[in-house]
Amino acid sequence: xxxxxxxxxxxxxxxxxxxxxxxxxxxxxxxxxxxxxxxxxxxxxxxxxxxxxxxxxxxxxxxxxxxxxxxxxxxxxxxxxxxxxxxxxxxxxxxxxxxxxxxxxxxxxxxxxxxxxxxxxxxxxxxxxxxxxxxxxxxxxxxxxxxxxxxxxxxxxxxxxxxxxxxxxxxxxxxxxxxxxxxxxxxxxxxxxxxxxxxxxxxxxxxxxxxxxxxxxxxxxxx
Length: 223
Ligand code: GRF
Hints:
Blueprint: E1 2-7, H1 12-22, E2 29-35, H2 42-48, E3 53-55, H3 64-77, E4 82-85, H4 94-99, E5 104-108, H5 120-126, E6 131-138, E7 148-155, H6 162-186, E8 189-192, E9 195-198, E10 201-202, E11 207-209, E12 215-216
Parallel strand pairs: 1-2, 1-4, 2-3, 4-5, 7-11
Antiparallel strand pairs: 5-6, 6-7, 8-9, 9-10, 11-12
Bound molecules: 5-O-phosphono-beta-D-ribofuranosylamine (GRF).
Residues 7, 9-14, 42, 86-87, 107-109, 134, 173 line the site of 5-O-phosphono-beta-D-ribofuranosylamine.
């Protein structure tokens, strides 16, 4: 599978994919990494792994449509089967989505549909939630609103603050990203309207990451 990864920052999820590729865990060709920020530390990680990188800063464009057009051209050049937004802090517009419909996924740090948008950790704490987590979903025109493929859940601990919650969630996100991209390479995972189909069977709830890093259909007992 040919994968294009879009980043804006640290790129720790990109690194998790690189490591999984290098260890032969996933059959993956990471064809390109695109960042909308020149100072994204993930660019160095891609460079060290021998992956071609491109910086596309939105400041250089007259408007969002122009940026989206340039982004579409860049992504298309790598002929990816899948595009992953891994900490890409910019809304992907309809111009891009039209081209890669059903082939763009995003990692979001909440148990969607809870807490779309930013500051998810504090919002979960403020709501008194006893669990938090991360989701991977197909990207649609609705911000963090596309059909959810997979999730990982962690308990909220007593005395937790948003930094500790984010720190504990990060390694679980890495595992979720690797498991989900691996799953997509091995199964037929499709986005049809507002639903995800796996091997032709509709998911009623997102796949859940288990402690052995497998993804299973959700059951109330968590098994
Ligand atoms: C992750 O927490 C992800 O959930 C959010 O941005 C962060 C990206 O981290 N969308 P990194 O750049 O992969 O380290």
